[in-house]
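Figure S4 source data
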Amino acid sequence: MTKKPTYVLGINAYDHDVSACLLRDGKIAVAIEKERITRRKHASGFYEEVVDYCCEAEGIRVQDIDLVVRNCYVLTVEDLETRLLYENIPEFMDPEERKLAKDHPLHLKSSDKIVTISHHVAHAYSAFAACPFDEGVVMIVDGVGSYATDVHEPGQMTEGVNPLARESESYYRFKGKEIETLKKVWLQPTRGFLSDEFYFMPGLGAMYSKVSSYIFGDWNKCGEVMGLAPYGRPNAFPPLINIVDGELQFPEWDRSFNRPWNMDEDWEKSPNLQHWQDMAWRMQDDSEKVLMMRAKWLRETTGARNLCIAGGVGLNCVANGKLVRDAGFENVWVQPAAGDNGIAIGCAYYGYLKLLGHERNHVINDAYFGMDYPALATREDAAQTRYKLDIKVKHSDDICAETAKLLTEGKVFGWYQGRGEFGPRALGNRSILVDPRKPEMKDIVNKRVKHRQAFRPFAPIVIAERAAEIFEGEEDSPFMLLAKRVLPEWLDRVPAIVHVDGTARVQTITQEQNPKTYRLLKEFEALTGVPVLLNTSFNVKGEPIVETPEDAIDCFLSTGFDYLALHDMLIEKTSMHHALAPARRTFHEIQTMVRRGLYPPSDSD
């Protein structure tokens, strides 16, 4: 008789980036973010969709899962679900989700099979439990974690801490599956308008989000702050964080901070642009100094050779690159979904290792954790009646060779293959790909497809064994979470992926990690001598990365792609599509507005 697998489900619940991760005997079977299903960026709310997705992908029922481990940094899941019974908070549970939740087997349930853990413990397990090292240290830095009163795991240094203080930084040492807390930095309660006190909490991640809100009108645009920073003038803006005897001090914002972005103005033409660029430079520089100080302290205190990183600040690839080069560790590993979507991974591994007592047996070598959409079903999707006037579909005997040739001709490609990536980066399965040899390709992609601010860079995907010839450093970067300097002799050969400061956010790829995309790069290299492509996520600004074949076709049709490589199908637009394009674009824009809750307009608009 075949032994039944042990299934553990981890869930990041209710607040932004709701996600789930299903382990099968300690290995990641499937993981998904709610935004990919609902098409709402950073989707919050009830977790039914992500749980159902994992079960469907694995062919099991919720009842077949041995253990469910959850986290919500706002409150414990049990407390939040109880509060939502009598308090209407649509971003946590909208009216439709309230109906679904009543009959869901995990909602309002408490048992030995359903457990809640604290935020930084979940981040820590996501960082080390499936890392390539048997021992090392862990750095967790994010915007805000659990309240001290909600941190119940032993050894989390809550003694004498204000119960309403919240996690900001946590540092751990691990060996095998055991973990020890070395240091925690707490955000003390502070004043604010109703529930916006997060923006005034004195912490590194909280400050980065505050700057993001000031410059871009959104706390969750920290990656854009990082991209803007090289345009700023060094030291033109006063420090936002001071380091005094190893502790962080945050100068109070005064009346000089009076130029936040007004959403009614054109951001790129604002007279405040230099002010924002200088502020971004300062925020990035202050952050790098703090993280370097913490990393060196970890190295000197423990003698560890290996550093693992998670938490939202771990997505700062520029800072990560500097830690790799200068912090003194032999190896630095950043979990591919370092933000709160990766909490689901940590919850699942806490359950498997700590609660069920199993040993570590898995290393995350790639992040292709999404559902597999078989080629036959994909062909059926492409043949739908609603697409017949718009697309021309051709089976390709060699999709890699054919795509590589078209890329050398300057074509913009949607590349949809295999299982989707988990985390914020497209890593070669849900990607937009173009030739990096011409500097204008960056602007072409931006104008025709992505519609992002012009200052934001595009990343390269490179054959791993050739990466050190083109980019500084020998280390691999499989999850696009390290910025590296482009070597001088390559600056003019791949200009479309070089940022204004001469760096690039590199993704290295091996044949083992992704055979098909690796072969595409080899075909492109054979034609051009360049083993690099410009790689950006398959989406438009404000939308999540595409999940299903239908998502891919819809995005392809609503933007300025030339071709879509969908498994072994080469898809292009018909002449009829170009006549219908204006109506299609309008329909797509209305769909997007509906998803974002902006359509129909309210009476007050």
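Figure S5 source data
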Amino acid sequence: MSTQPDTAPETRQFEAEVAQVLHLVTHSLYSHKEIFLRELISNASDACDKLRFESLANPSLLAGDGELHIDVSWDEKARTITIADNGIGMNRHEVVANIGTIASSGTRRYLEAMAQDKKADTRLIGQFGVGFYSAFVVADRVTVLTRRADAPASEGVKWESDGKGEYTLEQVELPGRGTTVVLHLKPEEDEFLSGWKLRSLVHRYSEHVAFPIRMPKDSDAADAADESTDTQPAGQDEWDTINAASALWTQAKSEISDEDYQGFYKSLGHDFADPLAWSHNRVEGNQSFTTLLYLPAQPPFELMMGGRDERKGLKLYIKRVFVMDAAEELLPNYLRFVRGVVDADDLPLNVSRELLQQNRQLEKIKASCTKRVLDMIESLAKNEPEKFDTFIKAFGNTLKEGIGEDTGNRERIARLLRFASTKAEGAAKTVSLDDYIARMAEGQDTIWYVTAETHAAAAGSPQLEAFRARDIEVLLMSDRIDEWMLGYLHEYDGKKLQSVAKGELPLDEAAKQQHEEAAKAAEPLVARLKELLGERVGEVRVSARLTDSPSCLALSDYDMAPHFARLLREAGQDLPDSKPTLEVNPQHPLVQRVQTEADEATAKDIANLLLEQAEIAAGATLPDPAAFVQRMNRLLLG
């Protein structure tokens, strides 16, 4: 810790994670270098939003300068680009917290994302809230001049760094509030020293920022004339506003083009891709609010990393004043991939997150947002199958969480889910539950499924053999969340969902009688298997499920699938021990050999292998893999 007083210039080291980010930024090749301008304008917009919100309680913060704006200028001679705002500004402590250290987990999560995706570029920076560092993509030195709105002119702060591990802090005199960021460009970045280039980037990435983005008047003409004189800050009347500078969602839908909606989404979501769909609605009545919601085409990186804590998908405005990122209060967790804004007319402007959680009006807004999102997904499923397929691949597993989390919409969510199936062929690699029901044979009243750790394991499960023989379709579920989801999805459209490993099979009278006869004839075999396996099994019985394989595991109605139980144990969950039920096919030569084998040790090896291969097929963990290998080798050599 430095012992210097706050007023003295000092040099500090970046925290380790910030230094890592800066190293990545300055030593990597990025496909979208120009993203720095979008990120710095986004930060400036946030600063203006904060000032507008704080000034509601303290109007003196505006101090006669109530027209909030963001200015972009450049100086060819000095080779600098300057982004300035008259927003809330920062004091010395905030500069250190926001730039030199980790103010949140965003920096660390950014590094984790970069480690997972070696091809990732600056698109990640904005999604993790560390967009300031994108300045070092094009600059070898960055200067920040800032003064908080409630601080005197003498308490301005100058921050400067070359991004190589250190930064300097100095207290300076600043007459106006707000923040100015000056980028000293690297030698190879001359393309950005152009009014035309900067203006085009603002139109591409920041057109719908809700504050005026200004550039010096006649900047394009100056470019054309190749003027290289030192560009001084323009006067108040020497700036042109170059963006729409209005809240897009407040405009009539008839006045907004698809390009406008797409551009606003890219700015809002720090994304380069167009959204799959959007929904823009105004609700009037006892409660008035506007929603503009987007379905992304690809998962935000925090979702790809399994993040459920840092949700920044929806922004809450009250009467066009930004209040907070309030995704948790505006949408259920299983829709956390949605991006957009909600602008409410009737909430108090001094609302806190704690008050939001108890606000009945917000529950109605949340229900409305949820309905709008599900409407969008249903519309894609019905009218745009290719886009819907993209959506399901990106967000299908996240949507499945809604089966357990949103009881009121459970059937509606289930209708949107897609699964692999023993009858899914050609281009239709997956089926809906409605597809399955439409193909059910007369008299069938059960939706059958099998769960496994992988698609190949599900498709190759021995428990499917009898169903294939009877031409009964089975859903193949291999996502980790499926077993959890099925704990809540017991039926759909009046049809029971049941695992092929549980309960009795749908046998006609003739097949049932045949099975009973086979079971009676195999009683001595079953008795010997139980004797040989001893405490390793709870029960041994003849299977109606098997036609080709020698053995499989069967589960009771309340048993957990072995592969899922293994995953929970690996995650540290304590689960009760239970003994498996082994089903055997008495017609299989390996099973018959148990009965005919005279050598007791060999018969015991075979019996254990029948159990162990059934456990492997079900995704269970073998209690003693080494013993399994030894048994297998003895039989192969014997």
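Residues 1-5, 102-107, 118-129, 224-232 have pLDDT under 50 and may be disordered. The first strand starts at residue 10 and ends at 13.
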